[in-house]
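Review session, final week

We close the course with one last complete record, chosen because it touches almost every idea we covered. It is DUF3667 domain-containing protein, a protein from Rhodohalobacter sulfatireducens with 223 residues. Go through it on your own first, then we will talk.
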Amino acid sequence: MEYVRTFREMLITPGKVVDSFVLDEKSNYMHPFSFGLIGVIIVIALYSLVLGYRTPILAEFVSKEIDQYQQLTYWIQYADLKLSTFLLPLLMFLLLIPSLAIPGLFFFRENIEGFYYNLILSAYAVGTAVVSLLVLVPIWLVSPSTLFNSTITTYMPLVLVGIVVLRIYERYFLMEGIKSWIQILSSYTLGCILFLVLESFSISIIGYFIFAVNRFIDLWMTI
């Protein structure tokens, strides 16, 4: 299977996969975004078996008697829960890839050139690392309360993904010495900071959108 072959090569010799896609007219490996999406689908499918297609919400209903600010706060918290659990693999695929590619322009400028090259490397790396999020499944299965634990839903996924991404960076760039490790750690750390900023912004926008749709429906029903 092409996915399995690409996944295996990314862990062993990532240079063959990334360079083949960027430099060769026809790569023998999966397209980086198709490869990543398959991993996302696998993880979300397994998440659904544990969490169900509905993650727990923070209240049984949103009362129309409470003020609009409370309703907005509720929907933002609801979006946060959804995107931090069931849809976490998709969120990381959409936001972490460009977040890692941007600092790569600076930290890896002596190794690879251009945003496109960094984007492809990040896409393959995150596409491989997203499978590590399956480690969260037994944690949520044994202790559902950790769904609301910011350490488990925010920082632990970045650590799990980081372990795989840093291994890929180390093998791709053939890192040697403390300076090289500082280089890749700095790049990943800055990428994570950018990801968390984009994640927070996305959660707020999506939460506000859900709130606005519900308000529109309420107003429509009163006409």
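Two points worth writing down before the exam:
The two ends are 56 Å apart (CA to CA).
Confidence is low (pLDDT under 50) at residues 58-63.
Good luck, everyone.
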